[in-house]
Design a protein that fits this description.
Elements (H helix, E strand, L loop, with lengths): L5 H22 L4 H38 L4 H23 L8 H33 L2 H22 L4 E3 L4 E2 L8 E2 L3 E3 L11
Antiparallel strand pairs: 1-4, 2-3
Helix pairs in contact: 1-2, 1-4, 2-3, 2-4, 2-5, 3-4
């Protein structure tokens, strides 16, 4: 039986593997140019996974929490502020990686660490303040309706942004084109359909 929040947890797994890839790229013994190419590749592939996940929360999960406990829900306000911080942290790292002369490697490491820490902290808060609240408050049919709404957000992003309809984790180790550094390929693009049930265990 597939849990109602299986898709959200899959998003979390993808982002966690992105963090693993960032850590590996920062730690491995390669030239600065190779490190820059790999980091830029990881940060570029991270964006659709991160932004799609944030949109799912903003367009589906947060409104569902608001309907339960009111528009002034402090937990949702906190999570919304963290969304801005996550987007800013990603943008900061991407911008630093575009500076080819006098590269600020200390700044890049600090920006990467900030993004990684924020992602992990956000995952924990989302589980406690959003997913658990919905799990224990909604009926099975209501959870199934949320799943349909989440899938619609992904479908719309695919049509409007050109992002993959489904973002899958691929455990193979691969290298960016033309490079010899192996890091996890945490995003594989494809389209997979399967029936999701929202039955509570």
């Amino acid at each position: 039986m597939v849990r109602w929040d299986e898709g959200i947890e899959r998003d979390h797994d993808i982002l966690t593997h992105q963090v693993d890839a960032l850590e590996a790229a920062l730690a491995v013994d390669v030239t600065d140019e190779d490190r820059r190419v790999v980091l830029a590749w990881i940060v570029q592939t991270l964006w659709p996974a991160l932004e799609l996940h944030l949109r799912k929360e903003e367009e589906v999960l947060f409104p569902a929490v608001h309907r339960l406990i009111g528009e002034n829900a402090g937990a949702v306000t906190l999570m919304q502020e963290e969304h801005k911080e996550l987007r800013d942290a990603h943008r900061r790292l991407a911008e630093l990686l575009q500076v080819y002369e006098h590269t600020n490697w200390d700044g890049i490491r600090l920006a990467a660490e900030s993004l990684m820490e924020r992602l992990e902290d956000h995952r924990k808060k989302e589980k406690r303040l959003v997913l658990d609240v919905l799990e224990y408050s909604l009926k099975s049919k209501e959870l199934k309706d949320l799943v349909k709404e989440l899938e619609e957000v992904a479908r719309r992003a695919h049509e409007e942004e050109g992002w993959p309809a489904t973002i899958l984790y691929n455990k193979r180790a691969v290298s960016p084109p033309g490079r010899g550094l192996n890091v996890p390929d945490e995003i594989g693009y494809g389209s997979v359909s399967h029936e999701i049930t929202a039955e509570k265990p």
